[in-house]
Write a structure and sequence with these properties.
10 strands; five-stranded antiparallel beta sheet
Length: 213
């Protein structure tokens, strides 16, 4: 969250957002915040972020059917044979296609970026299309031992200008860390949202494309 040291186990960004919204009132969270400058600072960032999105509702995971193994085990041998055949017959095939939303940065490791859309109170993290009035947040995932500075830039297709809707933020890494602030997209062209990740003298950039509906 912030670069200040925590006095114990840092409170997750999700729990801090719940606390800021008055939905997490357990004594342990309040007691930790009373004595921890790092988590207090993160809470103030959330409170200053007047366009922060509500907490994401995670869908339930459907249970696996009991019959899964009945077809998987025999199919496994067939799939392995097919994979070996592909390696023999097509050794030139590139199996490491680069994803534009992933970048490796020295001192941090692999960084994955994603976006979250809020539309009329509905939160989704599985869409890449926009309409007027939508709000967007950027989330990043990177190994928790690292930290970096994250700077967001947005370019509209056919235009050279780069918009920078959010202030650069220096944050500790983790799973789906939310960058402070939110932004909207206008127009009728695809927009490329890129995050430049800087750690020490190394940097890298990862992007996602959001298209109009």
């Amino acid at each position: 969250m912030t670069s200040l040291p925590c006095i114990g186990e840092p409170i997750s960004w999700l729990r801090l957002e719940l606390f800021a919204a008055g939905r997490a009132t357990d004594p342990a969270t309040g007691a930790h915040l009373a004595g921890c400058s790092a988590c207090q600072g993160a809470l103030e960032e959330i409170r200053r972020d007047v366009v922060a999105l509500p907490v994401l509702a995670m869908p339930d995971v459907a249970p696996r059917r009991a019959s899964w193994w009945t077809w998987f085990v025999p199919a496994l041998g067939l799939a392995a044979a097919a994979a070996i055949a592909l390696l023999i017959l097509a050794p030139w095939r590139d199996t490491t296609a680069r994803r534009e939303d992933v970048v490796a940065v020295k001192g941090v490791g692999e960084v994955i970026i994603d976006v979250v859309r809020e539309r009329a109170g509905v939160i989704r993290d599985d869409v890449r299309t926009y309409a007027a009035g939508d709000r967007w947040k950027v989330v990043v995932t990177c190994p928790p031992a690292g930290s970096a500075t994250f700077a967001v830039g947005v370019t509209e297709s056919g235009r050279p200008e780069i918009d920078r809707p959010l202030e650069p933020a220096t944050l500790a890494c983790g799973n789906r860390v939310v960058l402070p602030g939110a932004f909207t997209l206008n127009g009728d062209q695809p927009n490329r949202v890129c995050v430049t990740i800087t750690s020490g003298e190394d940097s890298g950039r990862a992007c996602v494309t959001i298209r109009p509906e």
